[in-house]
Design goal:
The protein is of the alpha/beta class. Helix content is about 40%, strand content about 15%. Strands 3-2-1-4-5 form a 5-stranded mixed β-sheet, with helices on both faces. The radius of gyration is 17 Å and the shape is globular.
Length: about 220
């Protein structure tokens, strides 16, 4: 069933997602090693998905240091294609939300392509919301990493840089960012305006950044 832009967020399914990956760029062959998803209906968490995935390539030492996910941990885990039916089920018909979500979607698109479809072929047209874009309109550019933004709202997650833990943190940040506007009572159209306009599953411009947020902000600020 199509989602109307006039419907309240409380009246449409919303999925929050996050990926951990072997490296920084899907364009250069990096793969998903962990996928976390939480489906929210009526403002209530109704279903979660949390799986390590076998990327069939080495995880860099830097990624292991950041996430704690090692090559031994993903060896023998299911491949993305094997998990596809369950992934499609939890994403079914939902608005998609993430923190710097364009990065996550670039990796998911790469995984879908390996199954013979693009992400648009698999999911159709979807409305997308990005908590980074909302945060930038509220706080300005720079310093909008997930862990920093959540602490601005007085929330200290027990775990960071793991997919489902970051999903739950994103939900908290999303609700706090949109709290002044009504959060789940907000129409989808008005929620889009909070981030500056609509987003789709694929970048509107080839120049749109697909980097991890911390790397993008370091480059913008001329920092190492």
């Amino acid at each position: 069933m199509a989602v109307s832009l006039l419907q309240r967020l409380a009246d449409v399914p919303v999925v929050f997602l996050d990926v951990e990956t072997t490296g920084a760029s899907a364009q250069y062959g990096d793969r998903v090693i962990e996928l976390g998803i939480c489906r929210v209906e009526g403002g209530v968490k109704v279903r979660t998905y949390d799986k390590l995935l076998d990327p069939q390539r080495r995880i860099t030492a830097g990624v292991t240091a950041l996430t704690g996910i090692s090559n031994d941990m993903v060896a023998g885990q299911p491949r993305f294609a094997e998990e596809l039916p369950e992934i499609l089920s939890i994403l079914d018909g939902a608005v998609i939300v993430g923190h710097n979500v364009r990065f996550d979607l670039s990796f998911l698109n790469g995984e879908f392509r390996r199954t013979g479809k693009t992400i648009v072929d698999a999911l159709g047209d979807r409305h997308v919301l990005d908590t980074v874009r909302i945060a930038r309109r509220r706080f300005g550019r720079g310093g909008n990493g997930l862990q920093r933004v959540c602490r601005n709202f007085g929330y200290e997650p027990d775990v960071a840089h793991r997919a489902l833990a970051d999903v739950h943190t994103t939900i908290h940040v999303f609700e706090k960012l949109l709290e002044p506007a009504g959060v789940w009572g907000l129409s989808l159209c008005d929620a889009m305006m909070q981030q500056g306009g609509p987003m789709g599953l694929l970048p509107a411009s080839p120049k749109e950044s697909l980097l991890p947020l911390e790397l993008e902000e370091a480059l913008e600020g001329g920092r190492p």
